[in-house]
Target: Cytochrome C oxidase assembly protein
Amino acid sequence: MENLSSISIFGFIANWSPYFLAFTVFLTVAYFLITKKWYDNFEGGRPLRNKEAMIFLTSMILLYAMYGSPVDILSHILFSFHMLQMAVVFLLIAPLMYFAIPEYLWSYFVGLPVVKQFFAIAKKPLIPLILFNGIFSIYHLPVVLDFLKQSGMLHSAFNVLLFALALLMFYPIFNRVEPQERHMGGLFKLLYIFGIGALLTPACGLIIFAEQPLYRTYTDGDAWLAAMELCVPSGVLDGLKGQGLISGPEYFTNTTPIMDQQTGGIIMKVLQEVFFGFMLGYIFFNWYRNERKDEDEVTRRSVEEARLQKELFNQYR
Model:
């Protein structure tokens, strides 16, 4: 038995994925070219704010950390790292996109023909809420996850679908595209966040309280090796198998599959509560601030009306 640092045997490319690094760098360069140089080409374009740039850079670093760093290999060895990926990408990075990307770019993107139809679903918030959580639960059915983790194309496509649905799910509460009067009220936004947490709970509960390991790709040697092909170059993996160096995830950790599985469910639930706690605080603060603005506006109008009435009264004295 070895420790997790032994993943170095898979080589530099598998551990630090220069291909995914190139992808995140491309996204970052495109983002800054559009928001710094070409923003005048968009309706309502404006200079990029420092806060937006920092949030986007943080999101890209997190994205690379989840899918380009050794975390990605570890997610195929330990289910707990897989759930860490899920929580960070879909429950943190996805909502951060609404704060990182300026509203004029979101307006342009959401206005594109096909995309417009997709985001039109968000006009009925319960639909994206059910869609994301339903697909997320289906994804974590043992037969589905084991199948997808042995097909690189299908696995990637399903992750892209989940990310798109996560963006759709957070659209009703964080978008800056729709006019304010079309947004849900502060109370409904708070209930919406609670709803996401409630719908995620059954999937986490089944994983945490299962009495035996659910996923062959984390327990069966052949299925695990097939899943590892998603992140390890085939030549490297074939060489290691030929030398008899690895046969399953037990080579890298002393953690039992059931303990790892339970830890994964707990990580997902705990991170969900942490992320949603910040979201609830943000929504409540903005709700309170807007209510105070409304109260101040009502008071200002009342004072102004009283002043005008007094002036009118004095004219006829």
User: Anything to note?
Assistant: DSSP finds 14 helices and no strands in the chain. The two ends are 98 Å apart (CA to CA). The chain has a mean pLDDT of 87. The CA atoms of residues 8 and 103 lie 42 Å apart.
